[in-house]
Amino acid sequence: MSKSLLSLAITAAVLSGCSLIPDYQQPQAPVAAQYPQGPAYSPAEAANQAAAEQGWRQFFHDPALQQLIQTALVNNRDLRVAALNIDAYAAQYQIQRADLFPAISANGSGSRQRTPARMSQTGEAAISSQYSATLGVSAYELDLFGRVRSLSEQALQTYFSSEEARRSTQISLVASVANAYLTWQADKELLKLTQDTLAAYEESYRLTSRSNEVGVASALDLSQARTSVENARVQLARYTRQVAQDENSLTLLLGTSIPANLPSAQPLSADLLSELPAGLPSELLQRRPDILAAEHNLKAANASIGAARAAFFPSISLTANAGTLSPDMGGLFKGGSGTWSFAPQINIPIFNAGSLRASLDYSKIQKDINVAQYEKSIQTAFQEVSDGLAARQTYNQQLQAQRDFVNANQDYYRLAERRYRIGVDSNLTFLDAQRSLFSAQQALITDRLAQLTSEVNLYKALGGGWNEQGSQKTEVSKEAPPLKLF
Known about the structure:
This protein is of the alpha+beta class. 59% of the residues lie in helices and 10% in strands. The protein has helices at 2-15, 56-59, 63-75, 77-98, 147-213, 219-254, 281-287, 289-310, 355-421, 427-461, and strands spanning 104-115, 126-142, 315-326, 338-347.
């Protein structure tokens, strides 16, 4: 009995050697071999370490931000869902892969039946018994043309895609937490600047009010000083609201409340980020998880063509069992009680109104769609990195110019205040200097935030944020989940 089942399995393995999956050819990258060059870009530099290999603890210098990222990686719900999706696709692959093997089952049964006398052929009541024990294979398809293996390969590539999707989710999460934290810190600095400016405006208004009382300052001067105070109060309310909303956004990304033992934040002007090497566009094909996920989806679509092709050919399924049958329990395993059955079935497609052809055409169209999506993911990555490189060079220039502008406004404010206090200039010039300085300081903080977020986005675009430490490997193991036999 066991030898028959073993022979059946060996025969199936020998026959299942054909595959109709098309040879996979990686599409050519639809982007230039180099990133753009021009006035907006800094000269290309050799990369000693790929950005994707630079751990986020190495890239982000602020200890408070490092702690927040670690908290988010443990508690964020989107990342948790992405990890569970991997398990779900692994289970689906396991289900599909199981069809490659015979499903062997054992069955034991027994029955006793009483037949009344008037229904019995002998005219007497009779009691009959039957006991059986069988071991069998049910409806096992011989994969002669690789249909089942094609479906298994499709499920495997989908599983690999889910792994890359999880990487992409983590990289996006790291960047989102960093940007939310930097926005929170920028708004807190803007709030502090507004509080200090409001205090200065209120002091100026108080002095102008005293001058008005003694006839030195006019009512117009007093009214103009008041408008500055009220405008600062508007700004104060706005930044107070934004800081609160920034905390709420950060809490959502963390998946829990902001830790109470968070280290003191470093100012935006500090050295918060490491330098990023851009490398070459070709490296994105191996570093960006969204590109790798799109390629695995393309391979899955390619495998589905093999399954659609195999459907045109005959399919053979086998059902067999062997065991013992006896009218009493004691004779169930005695000699002469053996029983077996063998029921092969062949299915030959003859007429299906074009259904199989349409299925094959659909599979080919899906592959073409996945090719376009794969190429679009490469183009998107190229554009994001190019934007980041352009932002790096121009923001450096813009920030230096803005710092010089703030310094010039500080000189303007000091001179205007001195000339106003000694009566050389009108209050209008002094108020204009106050507003110009406040506006320039706000713009400097905003520009610094924009520079930092552009660097974070460049780090994300280059595939960084998957590792915690730079010494770790970035590759995801491309091994099928282990086969669970029971």
